[in-house]
Batch of 2 targets.
Target 1
Amino acid sequence: MCMILAQWRQVRPALIEEASGEVADIFDKCMRFREEQRFAAQEDVPVFERVLFGVSPIENAGPWIDVGGRRMLQFSTNDYLGMSVHPEVRAAAAEAAARHGISAPMGARPLTGTVELHLEFERRVADFKRTEAALTFTMGAGAMLGSIACLAGPRDLLIMDQLAHASLVAGAKIAGATIKFFRHNDPANLERVLSRSDPDKPKMIVVDGVYSMNGDIAPLREICDLRDRYGARLFVDDAHGNGVCGEGGRGAAELLGVEDRIDVHAGTFSKAFGTYGGFIAGPKEVVFYVRCLAPTILFTKAAPACVVAATMKSLELVRSAKDRRRKLWDNARYLQGLLRERGFDVGATQTPITPIRLGDRGAVHCADILRRSFGIWVSAVVYPAVRRGNGIIRVIPTALHERSDLEYLVTSLQAAHAEFQATHAAQPQAAAATGA
Ligand SMILES: Cc1ncc(COP(=O)(O)O)c(C=O)c1O
């Protein structure tokens, strides 16, 4: 009898398909994906594919890169201070890799993966962020997702800026917490959400310090006031602020004078530090709790010594990189001034992140023309990183760019934009381009 039942269960799906004419395969959406997600009109597809799925050279940071034998000026990486190409950072990585290989120590942090180097690294991160303790992760997204996933639970309320980074939102979903969003960088709307929430429910406000696509800074002073007034906790992901903002490079909170009013500081090493990995920093009990429970600590291999060694060197350099920070900001102001003068819309950026708003077609075509005709490598950013139709060219000037590089970028962009308008702008934006 059991045998018959088992055989029936095997054939049943096929019978159901035959009867209904439907194919119930979980991969169906993958087969349809390319067609359905078409973001461009037919005639634009080759350009979109070239720009959005183009292959970068391995050495893609530094102002000048070699793309298949062609020297190109690049403005696409988040290597704000040029640390990814800093000889001392590279030497630290190379020395550690020569001694220990690229994977040591093997194992996850709670098993065999924690070594004295990790603990020393975490003491230095805590010292940098002026907190009691810190915990490091193998990636920034893992720091955000893993921390939020265990700090909040189904009884809790997370109140997030509507543009909070996707890794924070993913963590909130895993946590099973109630999630409410407030209007981007709008403390009045945050207050509205807080005032309508159950006062007895444990709650945490979750924001970015600097928003990666707009370049604007969270109004942390007002957010801290609301945190105090409504008895909430505050988690700040300052992936783009650390190393960049404030005299000491301690981020948006330093710049706005509220470092000690933030409960959990979080960040990544993949931007101004030029390496990779992420961290949280805060009270020792909170850090210990996350160390014991974050899925992205427990269920993944520890960071290799060569990466930790390089990041420790970079951290040391970033802390004292006042000249590079000054040059970065001078470059950013100069570039954004030039762009505005020439009529480009760079939104309300307050940091070196420079989003040039051109719409999806404009951004992709101009990036393509810049690459092909002017030897400039910039990235076009379209949905899902920004809203559909709101494509940008996202330019990141760094401390290593010269003024002449910035001037060349702006004149080239003007020419590329004129060419785009002359040849493409008259065509209607494809219906399939948006779909939503
Ligand atoms: C605001 C923000 N948080 C977190 C991350 C994730 O950092 P990582 O690339 O180190 O995983 C990023 C990077 O895209 C980011 O921009």
Target 2
Amino acid sequence: MKTTQIATILFIIIIIISSIAIGYSQNWFQTTTQPTPITDTNFTLEIFGNANMDGKIDEDDITHIQEIIDGTKSPTLFADANRDGVIDEKDIEFVKAIINGTATELHMLDGSKNEIKISLPANRIIIEYNQNAELVRILGVENLVVGVDSGIDPVKKLYFPDNADSITSVGSMSSPDYEKILNLKPTTLLVFSPGTGSSATTIDKAKYLPGVDVVYLGLYNPNVTNPEASNFIQGVMKAGYIFNQVPKATEYANWILSITSNINTKINTIPMDQRHTVLLTNSPTIGSARAYVAMDTLGQACILAGGINIANAPVSSTAFSVTLESEYIISQNPDYIFLHTVRYTYDGATNEPAQGMDATDPTGMKNVLQQYISQPAYNNLNAVKNNNIYMIAGDFRNNAMGGTLGAVYMAKILYPEIFTDLNPQTIHQEYITKFLRLNYNLDTNGVFLYPAITVNGDTLGIPNGAK
Ligand SMILES: [Ca+2]
Ligand SMILES: [Ca+2]
């Protein structure tokens, strides 16, 4: 062959290979439809200034406010950006400031749908619990953290390797040390939950912390099958506006949405009568037995993973868990049981077994599991007979993935034949490396699932080689 012929053939080969490479990178060969980005759905961002009631605050809201002022559009719930009771030019200026990142305050609904005002910039942050510790990393504002609750204190160096030494522990979130908090002169306290019973509520905290914005974002309350109604997604996006990191919040919300959408698509192919029944309960080491219902993050994870939860809350109940009699569990005979456990609790205690990001040895998880299985009453349960009982880390309920991480592992466990291409550790590692930006490798660290599962020869849930 002549040199020119060889060159032509090589050129054609290069073109073909490049086309395939580009095709893969652009998802040309994927058969699943891509999820709609959160800002293109019917999601309504609950921040005042979002006059056109879509998923973001931008130029369109300025136009919308102008049209309301001109009388060509009716006022909307979020049009009065500065909350002075009238919709006028000042609201346009206010929205411009939000867009430019120069706003000095922000009005929004919190995770309980109560209206709150936040002073900006929010640049001295105290955070409660894993969700908020991870959220500030996702948004890239971890260096603004000055205090953490006692649930994060033991893992402070893990979450905040660069500034752990300058971060103060302010006590448990159920009974915080208000004086310590005030001494830190924080702008913002991100609380884990609204608080109930003997646990300090957002109202208590706001009362004892004058000048500090006490914010419950709503991460505690995901809706995995309907992101438009998810307080979790709202919380991520609201935090984006509070910390002036909207692109990061949007990218993260879209990533979560793409995972939930892909799992949903596959689960929808499984007929209801072929789906597995599931009991979601707690490790005996964290109190008397409860079963998590749909309202709970674990209940949401189970729904997304296509499990049929044997525990249901009464209609209109807002409970996250219920008590189930052993007789009921035996009569329902669940196919799978997941035992949730918590290492560092909201009231400052440390529970056995060791698990989560700061653990490497699954022995404690193994022992508790054996204890649970050895209950004579449960000998004949399908889940026990078929070894379908798993201990799961607190991360699956309390991290900043809103049940999605738990769902990814659960889906793989419940329907391995449907999720052949799904590797939960790949998604988990992407979360840690790309979004949390932590130098942390799941091949060598972390106890999240016991017994571990094996995917393509790799151990998932515990470090490789751990027993
Ligand atoms: Ca808008
Ligand atoms: Ca106004």
